[in-house]
């Protein structure tokens, strides 16, 4: 780092704010967290690496947002209320403009959710952002991956596929109209964690997971944890999970399978996939309304393991839609 | 990563073990942590970067140990009982021998402290290890940096300086006798977090900090947080904080100021610096005995801000002993 700013100056300038709910915040050896009676803590860590999870020239304000958003998305998938987070940051150098923008984006999202930075670490090294987030929820009420049963409906929140389209465009593999590209890029670089929906689904959803690596892959983890399978109607997926309002126009830009691939296995969506009993359909829609987050029913759970993709007529859909794996 | 092992395989093979105390461990969107009635959670994050915190060719088993040890050291400084940790790991490639050794060293130390891996993240990228550790302690009993008062004694646990000597030897700047080098290198690469001492000092010490960047720098943070100063007897430091049994022989290898520099500002020691009232001297020694960790009294707290180094006769000691700053 530049000799002009020590690690301590950097933390003081960009990452120290008044303590809110935590008993003790940034600046001691540990942060101390309170949890209320009858509550438990949900904890998740995500690490973002330059070149792997974001491009070197990404807007640092959006990166600050995304680094926290991907962690809040894990809390959402558990139905936990965000409480606090730690930030560990490796930086090649102390670029003050970068730090100012990064911390601005980070705290803007943190403030939306009342989620407090309580500690962390900064060091010199290849750009790496590791956030550990803490949420609170009543004991025994967490949405897990393992609670779904045969017959349950399968839902997805919001829209899927735009983030992948933006990624492919940034890689120069496709070209999107400017307005659509701007919207898709916002989805990629500044995703919206579905925290309110996760909270509203407590007691309604039987299982949930956030979609970070692609719908099929992440839904597959949920099915595996619950030891069941699912039948997904791709006509609902392609039509109702369409990303931006312009998505339909993609027919002119992308062939059907590429569009379906973006929806089913695009990755970086940070929507929730969840299941609920048929008897809870009204409750699910009420939760979606309360959370101001659209949800779409795309299929149902079956006893037989595996994921079966079918068209509107119930016929099997072929095609390889591999989930995005950071180590693929 | 090698195509032969996905992120999920890697986690399953090297980082998944049966759940112990956490309500839910590795494998869902979040880990869920229980805290008992009347307890609070202490949280700390540390990030280790290749080339900055360790050499590329370090024994991966020792690195696994150290990555957790530096975090447990923060819990020790707060007087917290280790409970659980998350691990986020960026790896250039999936080297199975490396992973096997790393996880072996990591879990060996975790098991000593009953500290459970509850979640995390793995990704491809320049080698980076980020651990967030959770400890438990009764509400209001944390050892803070801010509680010391004028007149309190200043103590340091164990020994200081060997880690820096090993670092300088590995950098080729000095040469140490082989036996001493092996011992010093162990201190650098496999430090012992003073968890038992931190627990034993609850209710006795008025303030504590762990020594990661060097005694003077870290003690300086404690003094600043408590708005006081200190007088440190360097004759006690040089004589009683001597690292390995061979340290005395360093007189023939290193001049006095270099030895003092290693002790006062070497860094990577992971000992505790703490303060306690004069009336608690017997209690401090009893705590040290209980924790089987030697402690040495090296000075006392004064109202006037600043750190004053004096010799055995009380005369000021000159010399620049800058603390190791990861961004210096």
Structural account:
The structure is a homodimer of 328-residue chains. In chain A, helix 2 packs parallel to helix 3 (96-112). Mean pLDDT of chain A is 86; it is low at 323-328. Chain A has helices spanning 7-14, 60-78, 96-112, 162-170, 178-189, 195-200, 215-226, 234-240, 256-265, 281-290, and strands at 31-33, 39-49, 81-91, 116-124, 128-138, 153-157, 207-211, 229-233, 271-276, 295-302, 306-310. With 328 residues, chain A is α+β, with helices and mostly antiparallel strands. At the A-B interface, helix 1, strand 1, strand 2, helix 2 and strand 3 of A face helix 1, strand 1, strand 2, helix 2 and strand 3 of B. Strand 2 of chain A pairs antiparallel with strand 1 of chain B, so a sheet runs across the interface.
Which spans of chain A of ≥5 residues are poorly predicted at pLDDT below 50?
Answer: 323-328
Name of the CATH class of the largest domain in chain A: Alpha Beta
CATH topology of the largest domain in chain A: Phosphoribosyl-aminoimidazole Synthetase, Chain A, domain 2
The best one-word shape of chain A is globular
Give, in order, the helices and strands of chain A.
HEEHEHEEEHHHEHEHHEHEE
* Topology, number of strands of chain A: 11
CATH superfamily descriptor of the largest domain in chain A: PurM-like C-terminal domain
State the major sheet of chain A: 6 strands, mixed
- Largest beta sheet: strand ordering of chain A: 7-9-6-10-8-11
Assembly classification? homodimer
CATH arch. level architecture of the largest domain in chain A:
Alpha-Beta Complex
Q: What is the number of helical segments of chain A per DSSP (H or I, 4+ residues)?
A: 10
**Overall tally of structural domains of chain A:** 2
């Amino acid at each position: 780092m530049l000799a002009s700013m020590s690690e301590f100056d950097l933390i003081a300038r960009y990452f120290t704010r008044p303590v809110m709910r935590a008993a003790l915040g940034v600046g001691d050896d540990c942060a101390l967290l309170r949890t209320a009676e009858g509550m438990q803590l949900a904890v998740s860590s995500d690490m973002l690496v330059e070149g792997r999870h974001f491009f070197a020239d990404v807007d640092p304000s959006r990166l600050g947002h995304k680094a926290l958003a991907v962690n809040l998305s894990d809390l959402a998938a558990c139905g936990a209320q965000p409480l606090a987070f730690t930030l560990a940051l490796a930086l090649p150098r102390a670029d003050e403009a970068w730090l100012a923008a990064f911390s601005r984006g980070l705290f803007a999202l943190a403030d939306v959710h009342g989620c407090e930075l309580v500690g962390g670490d900064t060091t010199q090294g290849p750009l790496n952002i590791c956030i550990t987030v803490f949420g609170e929820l009543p004991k025994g009420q967490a949405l897990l991956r393992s609670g779904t049963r045969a017959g349950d409906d399968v839902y997805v929140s919001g829209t899927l596929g735009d983030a992948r389209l933006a990624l492919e465009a940034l890689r120069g593999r496709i070209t999107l109209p400017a307005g659509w590209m701007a919207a898709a890029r916002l989805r990629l670089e500044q995703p919206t964690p579905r925290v309110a929906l996760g909270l509203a689904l407590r007691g309604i959803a039987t299982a949930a997971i956030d979609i970070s690596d692609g719908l099929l892959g992440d839904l597959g983890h949920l099915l595996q944890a619950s030891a069941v399978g699912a039948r997904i109607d791709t006509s609902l997926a392609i039509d109702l999970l369409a990303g931006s309002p312009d998505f339909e126009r993609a027919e002119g830009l992308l062939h059907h399978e590429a569009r379906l691939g973006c929806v089913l296995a695009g990755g970086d969506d940070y929507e929730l996939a969840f299941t609920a009993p048929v008897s809870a359909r009204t409750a699910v829609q009420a939760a979606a309304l309360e959370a101001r987050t659209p949800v779409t029913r795309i299929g149902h759970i079956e006893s037989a393991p595996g994921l079966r993709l079918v068209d509107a007529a119930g016929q099997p859909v072929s095609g390889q839609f591999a989930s995005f794996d950071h180590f693929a």
